[in-house]
Amino acid sequence: MSDINKVVLAYSGGLDTSVIVRWLQETYQCEVVTFTADLGQGEEVEPARAKAEALGVKEIYIEDLREEFVSEYVFPMFRANTIYEGEYLLGTSIARPLIAKRLVEIAEETGADAISHGATGKGNDQVRFELGAYALNPAVQVIAPWREWDLTSRETLLAYCEQHNIPVEQKRGKKSPYSMDANLLHISYEGAVLEDPWAEPEEDMWRWSVSPEAAPDQAEEIILGFRNGDPVSINGQAMSPATLLAELNAIGGRHGIGRLDIVENRYVGMKSRGCYETPGGTIMLKAHRALESITLDREVAHFKDSLIAKYADLVYNGYWWSPERKMMQAAIDESQAVVNGDVRLKLYKGSVAVTGRRSDQSLFDEAIATFEDDAGAYNQKDAEGFIKLNALRLRTAAKKGRSLRK
Predict the structure, then answer these.
(1) Model-level pTM?
(2) Residues 6+ away with beta carbon under 8 Å from 198
(3) Which domain does 371 fall in, by range?
(4) 252 and 289 inside one domain
(5) How confident is residue 44, by pLDDT bands cut at 50, 70 and 90?
């Protein structure tokens, strides 16, 4: 421990990371630098400064990373139509590479010997933070207190605070029993009643959306504009990436859109039940796929879809900075040059329906697709040869007695 003189800690200002500050100071006899990121979690981050100062921290980083988070992480992921295990839009996962990057950068800026985080030894985040850090700085040292100390519960953390004179904010009123994580893309809930996969989530758990039953009886239509695969406007009004996603969250939330209750497979091997609210992301994904349906070549679209599961695994498991993710991203981004145009959507009681899509680069040819007189645009007789050629191997096998008919 003698070679650790300064540590950069991912710091929220909450109970866990406040304890970690003091624990690092005493266990490693080191100086602590705190880093607090505003990713649109909906809470003030500036109070973390006073809390860090009260713990004797001299170097305090508090940064607004909302625009970078959406433009450089969320949007690239959505160009791939990324969904983990068929449902999860990866709201927590995609925030970790940016935090890891800034931890490494701040460590270099301040001459720190190590970085630290408050992720537990049972979860995915420890893997995501550390894989990202090692990819960006292979020599970085990582301190993960939850894997070292013997503080195993909220009660032991509070006892540690009392013993070491750590100020703990005592909030009045009802405290949420859930473990929550929020950013501009989503808010997640774990623990409490959710640890029973049969138990229905309590209605007052949800923070961002009304229940579909309580949503307005009148549908709302919006038009989402895209450029190079990224949403850039709502109803013709251009917006920055972070502003646009925040507005979609508000619109979707009031219509009960984006709630999810799943059991997922963590990278560390266990199954975990979690609930998520991703109203803006749910709308974006539906609209993006709709625009791709008229602008992408069939084989490009199918090849791109074949990458979804692998791309999602990379993000979920913490390999954002891996060479294979970057290689896949290059191919995905190449496909997005033609994904420009507008998508009209109807939002109603938890549902998102596409009611129109248009693009100057659309491959949809009405003259060919029509059920009316196509004026010679398509020779239907050509289909006979096409079918027979594709049936050749099936007919050959059948002649050899290899028919699959039983």
Answers:
(1) 0.93
(2) none
(3) 366-398
(4) yes
(5) confident
